[in-house]
Design brief:
Elements (H helix, E strand, L loop, with lengths): L25 H10 L8 E5 L5 H8 L4 E6 L2 H14 L3 E5 L2 H6 L6 E6 L3 H7 L2 H9 L3 E12 L10 E9 L2 E8 L19
């Protein structure tokens, strides 16, 4: 795996061993950041279920001001930390259960949040809980963007207070992009660069 764009483009990313980690493939990350290109510079990024940290690292490489990576498995987190250090990426790694960390409402607000849980977790729990914790904990700026990576056969959820912007399948992976309703945060552009689409 490699960083797909920006300052660290082409630099390798180590992936934790074992079958519990399903890193976002280079092609999918490239497509994701093409969608979000004008939202990245200066953004504060939260990478949940971070694994190798590749998504957050790609965001920092492309101009995000910092990232927070949250990963529950300590062995995976050690590999993640090594990736962050190797690239000199701005941010911090948190070793904790993602939902438990969100309930404590630490470190916000963020402009972009990425959630890529194991597919069995996604099938069992869905994403309403994550979206609600982000909203009520004020961890997301109004107008901020939530990106969910989920199984390709799992339909996009209807999330109260969130607008569906994108819903695209890439093989067995589906990227679903939402925007939190409300006035756009002042950290970035005053007008969203993404428009609702189901392409």
């Amino acid at each position: 795996m490699r960083i797909t764009g920006g300052e660290f483009c082409g630099r390798p990313v180590k992936v934790p061993s074992g079958d519990k980690v399903r890193p976002t493939q280079d092609r999918v990350r490239g497509a994701l950041f093409s969608m979000l290109a004008e939202k990245i510079p200066g953004a504060r990024v939260l990478d949940l279920f971070a694994g190798s940290g590749a998504v957050g690292l790609d965001a920092v490489s492309r101009g995000a001001c910092e990232a927070v990576w949250v990963e529950s498995d300590r062995r995976h987190a050690e590999v993640l930390k090594a990736n962050v250090v190797a690239l000199g990426a701005a941010g911090r790694v948190v070793v904790d259960d993602c939902l438990r960390w969100l309930r404590r409402a630490e470190g916000g607000p963020f402009d972009l949040v990425f959630a890529d849980p194991p597919y069995d977790w996604a099938q069992a729990h869905g994403f309403g809980g994550i979206a609600e914790l982000l909203r009520i904990g004020k961890l997301m700026r109004p107008g901020g963007v939530l990106v969910i990576e989920q199984p390709g056969d799992l339909p996009a959820a209807e999330l109260p207070e969130w607008e569906l912007l994108r819903d695209r399948a890439y093989g067995q992976t589906r990227l679903v992009v939402y925007r939190l309703n409300g006035e756009e945060g002042t950290c970035r552009t005053s007008q969203s660069t993404l428009e609702p689409s189901t392409l």
